[in-house]
C-alpha cells in the first residue's frame, strides 16, 4: 500500500473517531447543562422556600437543538416580584468538545465538554437596554464547560445611556467572571464596573456610584449545606437632590456571609462607610449590621404568604394597615409555630458611628423559643411568650456627638455656640436618666445595658419587672 493511501486512510479513521467523540461529548454536554439548570432551580427553591408567594425565580430551557459538532439553545430566566414578571432570554451557540474550535483559535488546547457564546435576546422586557446600548449587544457571555463538573464563564455588560422624563441612567458597562467546580456546586465570582448613575429625570434627584467591585464565593459541603460569602465595594456614592446639599459616602462596603443547612439559615449582613459628608459637613464613619441564626426561611416565606392572603381578603393594598380578626390571628399563629420551632436568634449588631472625637455604638439581640401548636391566645401575648431573651446595649460618646452638632451648625464660632448649648441640654437629660438608673456615665461615655430573661428585666445591674421598666421609660417619654 502506498504511503499517501495510508495517510488518507488514517485521516479518515481519525475524522470518524473525532466525529463520534464530538457527538458523544455533545450528548454529555446536554446532560450536564440540563442537570445544571435543574440544580439551579432546586437551589433557588432552597433559598427562597418552596412557596414564596409573589417572589420567585426560575430558569428554563426553551429550546435545545443538538448537532454533531455544535448545538444551539435558548434559555429564559423568569423573575417574579409581586405583580411584576420579567423574563431575560438568552440565545446560546455551543461548540462541542473535546477540542472546541473557538478555544483552539484562542490557543487553548485543554479538553472541554463544550464552549459556548450567549447573547441576550431582544424582548419587550429588555427593549430599553438594547435602545440604550446603541447598537452594541447589552449582555453577552462566553462559557467553558469542562469535564468533571468544572467550568468558567465571562459575562460582558455594554455601556448604557438613556434619558426620559421620568428617569435617567448612565452605566459604564463592565465584566463579571465566574469559576465553577465541585460538579458546578461551588463557584467564585468577581466583577468590576466603573460607574452607575440613576436619576429621576433630567432635572431631578440622582444617585452616582463609582468604582464598583463584586466578589462572591459559594461552597457546598458533603452534607449539602451551602456557605456563601459575598462583598460589594463602592469607591464613592453621591446622592444629589434638587436644591439640597449633596450626600457623599466614601469607600462603602456591603458584606454578607451565610450558611444554609436544609431550611435553616445563619446569616450576617454589614454595611460600612468609611466617610460620610453632607455638603461641607463631615459626619464621620458608619457601620450597620444585622444577623440571624437558626432562621427557618421556608416557614417564614409561608408566614408571609399567609399574611398576603389575609391582606388580600381584607382588600388592603401594599403597605396599607388593616385590623386582624381572631380568625386571622389564629391563621398567622399556626404559621408562626414552625418558624419558632428552631429557636431562632435575631440581632442588630454591629452598629457604630465614629469621628475623630470618639465612637458611639448600639446592639440589640433577641432569642426566641418554640410555641405550642394549637395555641389560641392573642397574637401579641403569644409573641411575648415566644421571646425568651433580649439584650440591648448603647454607648454614646459625648465628644463625638457634640462635634457632629458643631459641624452641622457650620463650624466656627457659630458651631461652637451650638455645641455649648447642646452640651447643656445633653448633660441635663443624661443626669436625669442616670438618677433613675437608666444609664450610667463613665468618663465621657453614656452607657445603658438592658437584659430581659424569664419575665424579668435587668437595667445596668438593677433587676425589675417588665411593668416597672415600662413605667420608668414612660416617665421620660420613651
Task: Summarize the helices and strands and which ones pair or pack.
Layout: H1 3-48, E1 55-66, E2 70-81, E3 84-96, H2 101-105, E4 114-120, H3 127-133, E5 139-145, E6 151-157, E7 160-163, E8 168-171, E9 174-181, E10 186-199, E11 206-220, E12 226-240, E13 247-261, E14 264-278, E15 281-296, H4 297-313, H5 326-340, E16 345-355, E17 358-368, H6 379-386, E18 387-397, H7 398-408, H8 412-435, E19 440-442, E20 445-453, E21 456-459, E22 462-465, H9 466-474
Antiparallel strand pairs: 1-2, 2-3, 3-4, 4-5, 5-6, 6-9, 7-8, 8-10, 9-10, 10-11, 11-12, 12-13, 13-14, 14-15, 15-16, 16-17, 17-18, 18-20, 19-20, 20-21, 21-22
Helix pairs in contact: 4-5, 7-8
Written account of the structure:
30% of the residues lie in helices and 45% in strands. By secondary structure, it is of the alpha+beta class. It has a domain at 263-478. The chain has a 22-stranded antiparallel sheet that branches. Helix 4 (297-313) runs antiparallel to helix 5 and helix 7 packs antiparallel against helix 8 (412-435).
